Amino acid sequence: MLRGGRVSLGTLRGALMMPLVMTWAFGVMAVFLALSFIPPLFSRCRGPIPRIWAKGIMFMYGIEWELRGVEHRRDLGPKIVLFNHVSTFDVVALAAVWRRDATIVYKKDFHRIPVMGALMQRLGFIPIDRKNLEKARTSLAQAARVVREKGMALLIAPEGTRSGHGRLLPFKKGPFHLALETRAPLIPLVMTGLEEVMPAGAWFAKPGKVVAEYLPPISTEEWKPENMLEHMAEVRALFLERLPDGAQL
């Protein structure tokens, strides 16, 4: 960012740190990928390595991290964690809260990224092709089985894609169909500050503060398909209550 004709210190720091951050990020991912060929060790590292990876990136960029509401996510068992999708830095923020019993629905385009795409597949994450409706439905069916049969926590963005401007996009029905099918509780994960540390189109992050807050679980046991739009609106309102002014699209 230019201020008075000069590059801000935050932007300068981000630019200078980017080579080191990339070396750390891809180096740790390469080690983690190699560990995937040692299943017992890979399983034990499934939670801590992503968190170490994320904390290292945040430290180098000078980003302060705060996690709230951990008590709402502490218990094991099936659940669907809904997060607002703001920035490419969301990947780092989600890794910072990662747990061994979690999986995620992610955009298939990540397969194009060397090392990361292969690692996500080895971790058993669920790719989704949003350009192909039939394939997208197959991915969501797989996600439902993972939640229901393996008792895992599924992370998914109800907006369906990154907003690119910091405001909350309308919610898609997919995650709510999953809730109806699995009857797993929904846990909103509201993340703020991401659009400041790494705005849309930025190649690197700058110092700032990111806050991730888990809200209390929402039971879906009594939900009915005919009330889906009401449920979607209620959950979206919880996000808007905690997001900055102007978050409404």
Per-chain topology:
Layout: E1 2-3, E2 6-7, H1 9-35, H2 39-45, H3 48-61, E3 63-68, E4 79-83, H4 90-96, E5 102-107, H5 116-122, E6 126-128, H6 133-150, E7 153-156, H7 174-182, E8 186-192, H8 194-197, E9 208-214, H9 228-242
Parallel strand pairs: 3-9, 4-7, 4-8, 5-6, 5-7
Antiparallel strand pairs: 1-2, 8-9
Helix pairs in contact: 1-3, 1-5, 3-4, 6-7
Characteristic terms for this protein:
249 residues; alpha/beta; Glycerol-3-phosphate (1)-acyltransferase; 7-stranded mixed sheet; two-stranded antiparallel sheet; 9 helices; 9 strands; globular
Radius of gyration: 18 Å
Q: Count of DSSP E strands?
A: 9
Which second-level CATH architecture applies?
3-Layer(aba) Sandwich
Helix content: 40-55%
Largest sheet: 7 strands, mixed
Count up the domains.
Answer: 1
Major sheet: arrangement of strands: 3-9-8-4-7-5-6
Q: What is the terminal-to-terminal distance?
A: 25 Å
- Summed up, the helix count is 9
Order of H and E elements? EEHHHEEHEHEHEHEHEH
What is the beta-strand fraction?
15-25%
CATH topology annotation: Glycerol-3-phosphate (1)-acyltransferase
What is the CATH C-level name? Alpha Beta
* Global geometry: globular
Could you list the spans in which at least 5 consecutive residues all have pLDDT below 50? Answer: 1-5
Structural class: alpha/beta
Average pLDDT over all residues: 91
